[in-house]
Amino acid sequence: MTGSAPTFYIHRPIRVAPARQAPDIPAYLYFGGVAGASAGLAALAELSGERRLARAARFAAAGCAGAAVAALVRDHRRPERFLSGLRAQDPSFPLSLGTWLTVPFAGLATITAGAEAAGWKITATITGAAAGVLGPAVCTYTAVALVDTEVPAWHEAYRELPFLFAGSGISGAAGIGLLATLTGDPAPARRLALAGAAMELVAAARLRAAPGSLGVAFRSGRASRLLTGAAALTAAGVGLALLGRERFGRPGRWAALGGGVALIASGALSRLGVYYAGQQSIDSAGDRR
Fold it and tell me: Which one of 22, 35, 48, 281 is CB 3.0 to 4.6 Å from 153, fit for a cystine?
């Protein structure tokens, strides 16, 4: 035995090898973003008295948080690897910090949803508020974790990725809100959709217009097609959300339905686009060697 301290994998830069395939990483990114944004939306809706919206957002946060944790565990290939990552704590390492952020968040979101279903209003309010506080960090930390890797396209996109992930997560949560308020007033969800879509579209446009290898990774190949589709769905979702007003009657409800579905789907395409941009940049870097 030597006297040197062991070096855990969390102290080394991450390179995502091409052998690691979708859907694990994109699913983790997508569901985590929507879960965090939904928890924040639920907390705000509770404060403003939008009970139907708060209830739906709480259930969405719990479901998406569970899916995010499942995707994270599956990406580790074996559950014991995930547990080892929990034991090897390092607050300075985004992925380690994010794992410790996601797990308690998922617990709080699940308790909140259970309390909501059981009618335990005080418990749901307390745990929902705690989940809402953690929500913004859960929504965006995955972008920081990607930036902290050696994958060229992700590492160089440190300015835009947090805004892209925040915007698409907010849009996805707004889409769920639109579906939950089809027979009521979708105004809060509509305003959230506008804010999220603006952030997402501006960040995506900046990525694709960036000079050099960064822009090439995001405006070529499969990544470009997915990001184009995501932008189209986001724009369509916002347009339909604006038409989804109660005074328009049944056509307005159909518009809100379509807008909600479009906004939910756009986030999935956006995460897949970012994932494949990273893979393409790895391949390009290998070809240049």
Answer: 281
**What 8-state DSSP symbol labels residue 186?**
-
Token pair, residue 183, equals 């027979």
Tens of pLDDT, residue by residue over 161-198, are 999 999 999 999 999 999 988 777 667 888 889 999 99
Q: What pLDDT is attached to residue 85?
A: 58
The DSSP letter of residue 11 is G
Choose among 155, 195, 164, 190: nearest CA to 267: 164
Backbone torsion region of residue 206, taken as left when φ is above 0, otherwise alpha when ψ lies between -120 and 50, otherwise beta: alpha
**R_g over Cα of the chain:** 19
Distance separating alpha carbons of residues 116 and 124, to the nearest angstrom? 6
pLDDT of the residue at 4? 43
How far apart are the C-alpha atoms of 141 and 168, rounded to whole Å?
13
| DSSP per position, 261-277 | HHHHHHHHHHHHHHHHH
pTM of the model: 0.83
Task: Give residue-wise pLDDT tens across range 35-46.
Answer: 999 999 999 999
Under DSSP, the state recorded for 90 is -
Q: Which residues contact 2 (CB under 8 A, 6 or more apart)?
A: none
What DSSP line would sit under 225-251, residue for residue?
A: HHHHHHHHHHHHHHHHHHH--GGGHHH
| Cα dihedral 55→71→175→105 (10° resolution) | 40
